[in-house]
Amino acid sequence: MARTRNRKESGTAERVLDIAERLVQIRGFSNFSYADIATELGITKASLHYHYPGKAELGQALITRYAERFSQALVEIDRDRRDARAKLEAYADLYAGVLRNERMCMCGILAAEYQTLPAAMQSEVIRFFDENQRWLAAVLVSGKSDGTLAYTGRPEDVAQGILSTLEGAMLVARPYGDLARFDAAARQLLNGLTP
Amino acid sequence: MARTRNRKESGTAERVLDIAERLVQIRGFSNFSYADIATELGITKASLHYHYPGKAELGQALITRYAERFSQALVEIDRDRRDARAKLEAYADLYAGVLRNERMCMCGILAAEYQTLPAAMQSEVIRFFDENQRWLAAVLVSGKSDGTLAYTGRPEDVAQGILSTLEGAMLVARPYGDLARFDAAARQLLNGLTP
DNA sequence: GTCTATAGGCAGATAGAC
DNA sequence: GTCTATCTGCCTATAGAC
Fold first, then answer.
1. pTM score > 0.85 for this model?
2. In chain B, N or C terminus with fewer CB closer than 10 Å?
3. Which residues of A touch B (CB under 8 A)?
4. Mean pLDDT, to the nearest integer, of A30-54?
5. For B34-78, how does the pLDDT look when each residue is reduced to its tens digit (9 = 90+)?
6. Domain extents for chain B?
């Protein structure tokens, strides 16, 4: 029990995900290869197939883990932030943190190559967006109650708009390598929701 | 002079661009091949290299033509629409039209795979965004004059936000195959700019 | 301009030894 | 779990005939 080792943590399989996650967020799913991961990890391509039989399975595992972490982050925001506006700001900060690592949101970049993804990955991308929008809609509703947020229309629609805006802001800011560009868009978004 | 044929229109080269344009806007630049174009056009891969020596050159030609057409569309908007708000609505309609064809904005999808693009293509993507933002900023300024638009902050920053929002709305709406999703985001954006 | 033929490389994937 | 060796297929690209 000396090591920081949770139950069911194989080591290599997780490190594969770590490397692949970074690669997909920077280059996209179809623009990295087993060879890239193998080289970086110091094992052979063949060994990777032991952990993930094919690239489609690796892709699924990537989204699943990413979505779980994101979910956890949302739980933590709900726990740590009092009012709805602070939650929304923390949510935008999640995105800013990704961009700060010169990455794109995984599901945002996967949305761009959606038509070429395996069906299982497509479903998971949609599921990710849906879950985010549910959370955002709930925040919007509570924001109307506690008076920290204002908007017109259905909260579900506004939630979609928020998600789209943040994804778009990352998409466009990254080629410029300009975090301020994202921040400006995020501030503008929050301004539009200020009572 | 009987035919609709402008000077300097080789035919095949343009048809190659037409096919490649559709493919890149649906699949992305790295997810289509010379073979795809050749099959659809009914000629061989080798023949394509006569028109575009390499994929990098084809990619440059794609963006250049796309940006020129977009520029023309902006000129037409300036010509046909009186007030700034109507111009902005027409601008959003441009995007909706692309999405209606189940496509993504070419430079939006290229932004997603930016890190893997040839340098010449990267510059052209940035140039496209810059030009759009210049046009949007001018519309915003005139909108404050004619009283049809309201916003706070620098028009350049708001212009960035508008571009980002529309690109993001396309990016997220397309996997859902839901045009209404885009429209909701666009309306929300315009609402936020209403005096 | 378009063709056939082919090169050379890299992709994802598998068999089987250790 | 990781290895070597190998396969098949697709990719971009070129040479040279027509």
1. yes
2. N
3. 26-28, 30-31, 104, 108-109, 111-116, 122, 125-126, 129, 152-153, 157-158, 160-161, 163-169, 171-176, 181, 184-185, 188-189, 191-192
4. 98
5. 999 999 999 999 999 999 999 999 999 999 999 999 999 999 999
6. 59-191
Residue B154 one-letter amino acid = R
How far is CA B31 from each of CA B28, B110, B186, rounded to the nearest angstrom? 5, 11, 29
User: Which one of A115, A173, A191 has the shortest CB-CB distance to B27?
Assistant: A115
Span B154-172, pLDDT tens digits: 999 999 999 999 999 999 9
CATH architecture for the domain at A59-191:
Orthogonal Bundle (1.10)
Q: How does the average pLDDT of chain A come out, rounded?
A: 95
Average pLDDT of chain B is: 95
Query: Residue range A75-83: average pLDDT?
Result: 97
Give exposure, B69-88, as e/b (b: 16+ Cβ within 10 Å): ebeeebeebeeebebbbebb
Tell me which residues of chain B have a C-beta less than 8 Å from any C-beta of chain A: 26-28, 30-31, 104, 108-109, 111-116, 122, 125-126, 129, 152-153, 157-158, 160-161, 163-169, 171-176, 181, 184-185, 188-189, 191-192
pLDDT score recorded for residue A9: 54
How many A-B residue pairs are in contact by the CB < 8 A criterion? 140
Residue A3: φ, ψ to 5°: -80, 155
CA angle B130, B96, A134 (to 5 degrees): 95
Q: How far is the CA of B43 from the C1' of D16 (A)?
A: 18
Helix runs in B29-154, H state only: 34-41, 45-51, 55-80, 84-100, 106-112, 119-146
Q: Cα angle at A166 between A164 and A168, to 5 degrees?
A: 65
Cβ B146 vs Cβ B84: under 8 Å: yes
Closest Cα in chain B, distance from residue A60 (Å): 17
